[in-house]
Design goal:
The protein has about 450 residues and is α/β, with parallel strands linked by helices. The protein has helices spanning about 25-35, 50-55, 70-80, 85-90, 100-110, 125-135, 145-160, 170-175, 180-185, 200-215, 230-235, 260-265, 275-290, 295-305, 330-345, 360-370, 405-415, and strands at about 5, 45, 55-60, 90-95, 115-120, 135-140, 160-165, 190-195, 220-225, 240, 270-275, 320-325, 345-355, 375-380, 390-400, 420, 435-440. Its cofactor is pyridoxal 5'-phosphate.
Length: about 450
């Protein structure tokens, strides 16, 4: 069980003061939209091919098409454009687990502003490499985001650099809110918007913008069962600190939500939803297969929540899912795809003992081919096999079309071989994956039950 700590901000940056929270205003989001127009991508919001499968009109807001690969371009661009000229000489500094740092690196280099990014040791290597590639000075420091942030604040004070909070600076939130303006323009009849949530800047900006333009729009924040700081904040009605270890949604790995985001979301947000991370891997796979889009874990959580059956109330409605970013490393992508295939019975691993004579393995492969199963890998083991010396145990990984095809494979192996072992291959229906939901936050709550 995770341990929760009350959040004490020992090092507070001026833009995120718990004693002086700032509420984000719609007019400031509109001003940000005009300010950054032409400098960021107006990303498409297209209807998803998977809509019919889930019984709702799903639209994908493709923020991974920004130059940095994520929505952060909006907020960072807005913040840097508002930075005083004398402060630009000293430069800016930020702590980041990846995406905020990537965007800061790119835009600061483009605008000629000195930039330092402090990244925790747990950050993905591809994101560290991108920060360096875009020209920022990168310091890898701290076992988690909290330690990296403390180090960044210390350096910032020493060098008179402006610390830019990637998820709570008011100008950052205002810039992210432009996503909400575009969604309402692109899908005017939208019923609900599903927003991946870490520290809360994107969720806050979208909620303020969308609720102003279309008050009946339902706004849901989505977190995973390992990155649920906002859920706990609303559950306890105060900002709390959670421990985050490894997560597939590293873009959401914020231990404590923002001061300004939490303050602004009260009375604006409809609900927080938590989805298990196994569903995120499956969502990454389906988004790649069905929509031809490659997204990172954080960008897939809204689709994951739909796949997990967490939105029965949205059947038949127009739903926008924000695909926040696509900065996923090839190693992580490979793992996610294999996890997703395994979870859906399309990737099977088992052991079987076959005759170790000429033709023994060939006969086994012919059986698999006969029912259309593709052999991915096989490792023979001869030394530790019980029985006669003319047997070999094969550790087999193969690919099938799904659960029914996998069951056919299992029956085939049982029929032709005496010694075999399959891991738990019980099918996991969607409804079993429903996890706890956050507290209802809407003034007039929508029933979430069937």
């Amino acid at each position: 069980m995770a341990v929760y700590y009350f959040c004490f901000d020992i090092d507070v940056d001026d833009s995120s003061d718990p004693n002086n929270p700032r509420k984000i205003k719609y007019d400031d989001i509109v001003a940000a939209s005009r300010r950054i127009a032409g400098s960021v991508v107006r990303t498409p919001c297209t209807k998803a091919h998977m809509s019919e499968k889930f019984g709702m009109e799903i639209y994908l807001k493709q923020e991974f098409l920004q130059f940095s690969g994520c929505f952060k371009d909006r907020g960072v661009r807005n913040t840097l454009m508002l930075l005083p000229e004398d402060q630009k000489k000293y430069g800016v500094i930020a702590a980041s687990s990846g995406n905020h740092g990537i965007t800061m690196s790119y835009l600061c280099t483009q605008l000629g502003i000195p930039c330092i990014i402090v990244i925790p040791t747990t950050a993905a290597l591809n994101k560290i490499n991108k920060c360096e590639k875009f020209g920022a000075k990168v310091i890898v420091q701290g076992a988690n985001f909290i330690e990296a942030r403390a180090h960044a604040l210390m350096i910032g004070k020493e060098k008179k650099m402006t610390y830019i909070n990637g998820y709570d600076h008011p100008n950052i939130i205002e810039g992210q809110g432009t996503v909400g303006l575009e969604i309402i323009e692109q899908v005017p009849a939208v019923d609900a918007i599903l927003v991946p949530t870490g520290g809360g800047s994107l969720l806050t900006g979208i909620a303020v913008a969308a609720k102003h333009l279309k008050p009946d729009t339902e706004i849901y924040g989505i977190q995973t069962d390992k990155t649920y700081a906002m859920v706990e904040a609303f559950r306890k009605n105060e900002r709390v600190r959670i421990e985050i270890e490894s997560t597939i949604a590293d873009g959401l790995s914020v231990n404590t939500v923002g001061v300004n985001t939490f303050h602004t979301l009260k009375g604006t947000l409809d609900k927080m939803i938590v989805v298990k991370e196994d569903w995120v891997a499956r969502a990454i796979m389906h988004i790649a297969e069905d929509e031809r889009c490659v997204v990172e874990g954080a960008g897939a959580v809204s689709i994951a929540a739909i796949m997990a059956g967490l939105f029965p109330n949205l059947k038949g409605k127009k739903v926008v899912c924000v695909l926040t970013g696509g900065n996923i490393g090839m190693n992580m992508l490979s793992r996610a795809l294999e996890r997703g295939m395994s979870a859906e019975g399309r990737l099977v691993k088992f052991k079987v003992t076959v005759l170790d004579r000429p033709g023994g393995m060939a006969d086994f492969c012919a059986l698999l081919a006969g029912i259309g199963v593709m052999l991915r890998d096989t490792v023979p083991e001869r030394a530790w096999v019980k029985g006669d010396v003319f047997s070999v145990e094969l550790s087999v990984t193969c690919e099938t079309r799904g659960w029914e095809h996998t069951k056919e494979l299992i029956e085939l192996v049982k029929k032709h071989f005496k010694d075999y072992y399959f891991q738990d291959m019980s099918e996991r229906p969607d409804k079993s994956a429903i996890t706890r939901r956050g507290p209802c936050l809407a003034p007039n709550p929508v029933c979430m039950q069937k």
